[in-house]
Each structure stands twice: as structure tokens, then as C-alpha cells.
Specification:
Leucine-rich repeat, LRR (right-handed beta-alpha superhelix); single chain; 6-stranded mixed beta sheet; alpha/beta
């Protein structure tokens, strides 16, 4: 209970701070600060100077928000919690300029323009929902008790006038939306893509991923106020990748919903360290579960004829969804189940050759509008 009270007090402090920290307030109190006595001359002729601009808050805003004077970190009002969102927002406005010809009048005008630019950037970049979620993540990132976490979230929803459906676990960055699915292990699900992907970090290097790329690589981790493992890929995530031919999935993935069905040119789905992944593997570019007994996803433009290897027991629901290139499918003798809508909208799939008897195969058929396709079944063992 004492732990809850401490959490509740911090939530109350944040609610007060949130009333102060608005885009208008920040933009009004944002000032340009120039290090090194404003201007450092390189030589007596004053030909060059070196400047560092940094966005800071004036005394009024600083007093309202609270700043740790030792490390200059912004704090949640009346607490010792670093305000990560505000810190990152203002740090993103830093600018370093070197080797610029010095002209006093122009310099003063430039500074005025830069401050105006910063103010506009604050208005555009400030995101109240993200601010709330960063605070809640910072507050509860070390809390392993699910009951306490749920209690604090319920209290925060009421204090912040949020609906009961508000999800503190969701966040967006770089054109992507994520949801934290496991706080203790820092695992996230990639939920959607809306625009350009950027700043994926892979092996310590930044890569920009564009929707029209021929191949893309999903990393193991993303960095959002700490590192998170990408362990799940949600429904319809890759819908925007109309030109992508190859998708490389990380070894960290443990769950994938039907995510590839509008990738019209997709030829291969590859998995990092495919033979060491307990959840998924790629067999010649087709996605299977870890032990190879379930066909999970077939790339839309893989081949016109495909023979599923022996040992496969199940074809997952929507595994072939909207795969319009395939015309003939050969099923192994080991297959026992085809889940509902496995061949949903496969308009050109006309022939299925079965190396098993009809009595041993469970076909769950189709459900929903416009999904049914006319198939010709050939059961070799029943001929």
C-alpha cells in the first residue's frame, strides 16, 4: 500500500505539471542560450566565430517545472523523477554552428529567427499523449507487480480524465506504432506503420527504411526511453509495402498475425538465425513455425506452383491470403488440418493436389464476405 501511495503522489505531481507544460507555455518561455559568452572570436580580425545554441527554459518555467541543479535535468514537479519527455524534446532543438562569418546585425537577426523556429518546433513536436505515456513508463518501468501496476494505471486514468480504454502501453516513433506487451522483459509489438520508417537501430547503426524499398530488415530492438525487444508483429503491419520483395524478420519475433497479405510483390520472408529461432523459420522463403510443422505465411509473389514439404501438419488461417500468383498447391501426406480462410481471396488458385486421403484432412473452409474461392481438389489416395 505504501508503494501505491508513493506512485499516487507522483501521479498527482505530474497532473499539476501537465497543466503547466503545454505547447503554448513552452513556446512562450523558450529562449535561445548561447554558450561561451555568446560569441567566441577565433582571431583578432573577427572573421569567424563558434556558437552553440541550446534550447532552455527561462527562470519562470524552470521554477514551475523543477530542475536538478547538479545535472541540469528537468524533473517532474516536486519529485526526484527525471522528466524524460521534456528533456528529450528540448534536447532535440540543440544546434551547433561553427565557422560562420561574424556579422553583428545579421547575427542578432539570425538568433531571433532561430528562437521563432524553436517555438514553432515545440508546438509541432509536443504530443500530450506521448508525454503521458513516457511519464507512466518512467514511473512503472521497475514495477514487477501487475496488481500494483493496474492500480496505479486506474488511478492515473481518473486523475488525468482519461477513458477506461486508454492504453498507457502504446507509443509512436519514426512513423511506427508500438505497444508494450511485457513491461518486465521490455517486449513490444509492432502494431502499424504510417509513413516513412527511420532510425531503426541495428548492430549500433541507424538505417532508414522506406515503404518503396525492395527489401527491408526489421531489427531486434528499438530505442524509446530505453531499449525494447520487438517480439510481435501485429495485423496488417506491412500493408503499405507495395514494392517490397523481401522482408527479413529478427530472431526476437515470437508472434506474427496475418501481416503480409497486401505485399503484392513479396517473394520471400526470411528469418534471422532461422535454425535457432524457437518460434519461426524460413524454408526457401516461406514462413513456418519453429519446428516446421505449420505453414504460417506464403509470400504473395512466390511461385505459381508450390509443394508443401513432408512433415507439415497445419496450414494457418490466412496463410495464403490474397496470394494471386499461386495456381497449384501440392499438399503433403502428413497434413491433417487447413484452418479457416487459409486460401482467402486466392483468386487464381484453382487446383489442390493432396497426397493424403480426404478422410484424414480437416478443411475448415471459408468465412466472411468475398473470401470464398472455387477449388478443384485431387486426393491421390482416394483415386
Amino acid at each position: 500500500m505504501d508503494s501505491n501511495i508513493s506512485y499516487f503522489n507522483r501521479v498527482d505531481a505530474f497532473v499539476k505539471q501537465l497543466r503547466i507544460i503545454t505547447p503554448d507555455y513552452l513556446s512562450q518561455h523558450l529562449t535561445g542560450y548561447i554558450y561561451h559568452d555568446m560569441i567566441c572570436y577565433r582571431d583578432a580580425d573577427k572573421n569567424w566565430f563558434s556558437k552553440e545554441y541550446i534550447a532552455i527554459l527561462d527562470d519562470e518555467a524552470t521554477n514551475q517545472i523543477g530542475v536538478n541543479q547538479q545535472n541540469k535535468m528537468y524533473l517532474v514537479q516536486n519529485t526526484d523523477m527525471i522528466d524524460s519527455y521534456l528533456y528529450e524534446l528540448l534536447k532535440s532543438l540543440d544546434e551547433n554552428l561553427c565557422d560562420v562569418p561574424y556579422e553583428n546585425d545579421k547575427d542578432e537577426e539570425y538568433l531571433k529567427d532561430k528562437i521563432a523556429e524553436w517555438k514553432e518546433l515545440v508546438r509541432r513536436r509536443y504530443n500530450k499523449e506521448e508525454y503521458i505515456n513516457v511519464f507512466m513508463w518512467s514511473l512503472l518501468c521497475l514495477e514487477k507487480n501487475d496488481a500494483i501496476r493496474a492500480s496505479v494505471e486506474m488511478y492515473a486514468r481518473k486523475a488525468l480524465n482519461l477513458t477506461s480504454s486508454y492504453n498507457f502501453a502504446e507509443f509512436s516513433m519514426d512513423g511506427m506504432s508500438f505497444e508494450i506487451v511485457d513491461f518486465n522483459n521490455r517486449n513490444v509489438s509492432l502494431k502499424s506503420i504510417h509513413g516513412i520508417w527511420s532510425n531503426f537501430t541495428r548492430y549500433g547503426k541507424h538505417k532508414n527504411i522506406m515503404p518503396n524499398q525492395k527489401s527491408i530488415t526489421i531489427p531486434n530492438k528499438i530505442y524509446w526511453f530505453g531499449s525494447f525487444n520487438i517480439t510481435e508483429i501485429g495485423r496488417n503491419v506491412f500493408d503499405s509495402l507495395k514494392d517490397t520483395e523481401v522482408i527479413y524478420l529478427p530472431n526476437s519475433i515470437r508472434k506474427i498475425e496475418w501481416s503480409f497479405w497486401q505485399c503484392e510483390k513479396l517473394k520471400r520472408i526470411e528469418v534471422e538465425h532461422t535454425y535457432n529461432n524457437p518460434s519461426f523459420k524460413s524454408i526457401n522463403g516461406v514462413l513456418y513455425n519453429g519446428d516446421g510443422t505449420t505453414l504460417c505465411a506464403y509470400p504473395n509473389s512466390y511461385a505459381e506452383i508450390y509443394e508443401i514439404p513432408e512433415g507439415v501438419l497445419t496450414i494457418k488461417s490466412k496463410a495464403f491470403k490474397s496470394c494471386n500468383k499461386i495456381k497449384t498447391l501440392v499438399l503433403p501426406s502428413t497434413l491433417t488440418k487447413i484452418e479457416v480462410n487459409a486460401f482467402y481471396r486466392c483468386e487464381n488458385l484453382k487446383q489442390i493436389i493432396c497426397n493424403t486421403s480426404k478422410s484424414k484432412l480437416l478443411f475448415e473452409g471459408f468465412w466472411g464476405d468475398y473470401g470464398n474461392v472455387q477449388l478443384n481438389w485431387y486426393f491421390k489416395n482416394d483415386m
